[in-house]
Please model this.
Amino acid sequence: MDKLLDPTLWFMVIVVSIVGVATKLVYYRIGSRGKDSVVDHVPRLTPERWEQVKEQYNHRGALALLLASIPVIGSALAAAAGVFSTSLGTFVILVLVSNLIRNWIIVFLFGQTISYLPFVG
Model:
């Protein structure tokens, strides 16, 4: 539990989490700019089906961004958030929370290894 009181670890976790949000913002932007391309390249995606998918995402999809720190899945979720126009504030907060949780789990699982880094006390 003393790890939670270590300001150096807090700093590292916060910086790495913010960098993670920045990378997901790239996928968000790709999704927001690529919506028309998705619709054009998936012929089975009729306008009616698109609206159904959009409704489902808008109903509960934004909370799925809490899984955004999972590799591959997180990139797809970030792009979907852009496609379905999730507000940028909601996106950033949920992805930041996701990254903070993941990074603290990493600290607790691999804390002994992290303590061998030269800049961690």
User: Anything to note?
Assistant: The CA atoms of residues 6 and 97 lie 19 Å apart.
